[in-house]
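Per reviewer request, we include the raw input and output of the structure prediction for the construct analysed in the revised manuscript.
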Amino acid sequence: QVQLVESGGGLVQAGGSLRLACAASGRTFNIHAMGWFRQAPGKEREFVAATRWSGERTYYADSVKGRFNLSIDSTKNTIYLQMSSLKLEDTAVYYCAAGIGPEFDYWGQGTQVTVSS
């Protein structure tokens, strides 16, 4: 089993920045990929960013490219999502996910990000 705990959400004005963190614990040696997803009110959950645990390649949704940056601190089993130039449409619950197989198998509890005008 893998446990994921997100932190860093909050309220920020449009144009501002936030950094989310996701700490993994448990059988982390099985993890080969981690990522971030988000779900806005009334919408389906959508992909934001993901990376292989080695950090060799990172993927971003078109909507966040150039504004969000995913990084890894393998010494802390933690990934980060640095979000800049935040827009109203970035408001959502952000979820961290970890994959040990072809799909993401473990999910965090989510952290709320609210962008105000």
